[in-house]
Design a protein that fits this description.
The protein has 278 residues and is of the alpha+beta class. It is built from 7 helices and 16 strands.
């Protein structure tokens, strides 16, 4: 079995799950989500993922009965039923049971979970990025399913032979279409501070902790496009990539000037994953 799913109490193969048209994620994108990697019945950094999901739901005032413990139990059951060893799990909370009107009153909730085979590649080569204007709305710290700007930027990047798009807003680097971005300059890690302009990435948070443990200075401050191109190293982090370096941005070579430090950071960050899969 390569995929499995759950929706409001129903477990089945992914292709058999039916979501009602009353689920507001369909017409309005009225939903929040999380995606994480898993192994058997374990999810990497699961408590952090589910806590963030509930924070996102609270920000949109989506009412539901779940606690982090409740979500963990349901997700584990879905993962076990999927019979997959290594996978990507997607968890979505939406409003539902509503006629098609914009105001979200007197709504219920919808919990969708999907599990698909996935094996992280921790030895992937350096990435190629494409810069794009960040024209997203000012709610990027909430992980909603409203991802059209990211879809368009990602499509343009892929059509250009790149792995990811990096957003630039008012001359400053915010984040990538589906990941966070940081730079190394003179042995110091610099990353955009948590705000409404970026998602508070879970892997990003672990990156900052690892750097602090290694005695690497961490600076959470905006950095410019020029600083991005002149950085000693450029780092991309996400739940599926963990950490990858960058070699090209807009077909211009970048980074590559402190590979030993990148190797040290990656080794320490990957320890969580290797302990997790044992």
């Amino acid at each position: 079995m390569s995929s499995f799913a759950y929706y409001n109490g129903t477990f089945d193969k992914k292709e058999n799950i039916r979501i009602p048209l009353t689920d507001r994620s369909i017409f309005f994108g009225d939903a929040v989500y999380e995606a994480a990697i898993g192994c058997y019945d374990r999810i990497l950094w699961e408590e952090e993922h589910f806590d963030r999901l509930l924070l996102s739901a609270r920000a949109l005032e989506i009412k539901h009965p779940y606690s982090t413990k409740d979500l963990t139990e349901i997700v584990h059951e879905v993962a076990i039923k999927s019979m997959l060893k290594s996978y990507l799990i997607y968890v979505q909370l939406s409003r539902t049971h509503s006629t098609r009107k914009h105001s979200a009153t007197e709504c219920g909730w919808g919990l969708l979970i999907t599990v698909d085979e996935f094996e992280p590649n921790l030895e992937s080569p350096p990435m190629k990025l494409l810069t794009e204007e960040d024209f997203r709305y000012g709610f990027c710290n909430v992980k909603t399913v409203n991802l059209l700007p990211a879809v368009l930027a990602s499509t343009k990047a892929e059509n250009s032979g790149c792995d990811e798009a990096v957003f630039i807003k008012d001359g400053y680097v915010t984040e990538c279409a589906k990941s966070n971005i940081s730079i190394i300059k003179r042995g110091r890690l610099v990353t955009h501070p948590n705000s409404s302009r970026i998602l508070p990435g879970i892997t990003r948070s672990h990156l900052l902790s690892v750097c602090t443990e290694l005695g690497i200075e961490v600076s959470e401050q905006p950095f410019t496009k020029d600083e991005l191109f002149s950085a000693d190293e450029v780092l991309v982090t996400s739940s599926t990539k963990l950490l990858r370096s960058v070699s090209l941005i807009d077909n211009i070579p970048v980074g590559g000037r402190n590979k030993e430090l990148i190797h040290t950071i990656r080794r320490e960050l990957n320890k969580d994953y290797f302990l997790f899969v044992k």
